[in-house]
Amino acid sequence: MSKFDNPLGNVRIASPCSADWEQMFGDERKRFCGDCKLNVYNLSAMSREEAENFVTAAEGRVCVRFFARPDGTVITQDCPVGWEKFKRRTRRMATAMASLFATLIAGVFAVTIFTKRSEPAMVGEMRPISTPTPTPIKKTAPPPIMGAMSPNIPKKDKTGSAAAPERPQEAEDQPIRLMGKMVPKADRT
After folding, report:
1. Is 17 exposed, middle or buried (0-12, 13-18, 19+ CB in 10 A)?
2. pLDDT, tens digit, 9 for 90 and up, residues 74-102
């Protein structure tokens, strides 16, 4: 008969669930699954002692989530092997980022030292930039026509029909401007 000394060694998932852990409500240790209407417990977020007590006290249908090593043993929060692996990976990433940053700074420094400038940079000195100023194009407006206004009575030509009023020759392509006093019909003679 085998000796039962580690309850986490006997944890198996009878029917794997496809529900997304990130879509469930709760914290890192326990979340509510809307699909199976049960609480899902994360054994990997518990200490080894808490996870063993939970598995021992669990009765009935319980949903769990955990990370396991290749040999099938459950990884808990206080697992020294998993924690050491995490620290080692974090240390490597921090070293790589520091090396990348130092290389970037050294490259920028080298470029600024070995780049020759055509003229020395002066701090605080401002030089005017000469830009051509466009000259405005002057348009000449037609002279206004001023005087007392009279009704426009068309002249009759030799055939007896009314001729069109004459317009000055130079103002044919421009609008006519009229200025003057208006005389009421009764005062016209």
Report:
1. middle
2. 777 777 666 677 778 899 999 999 999 99
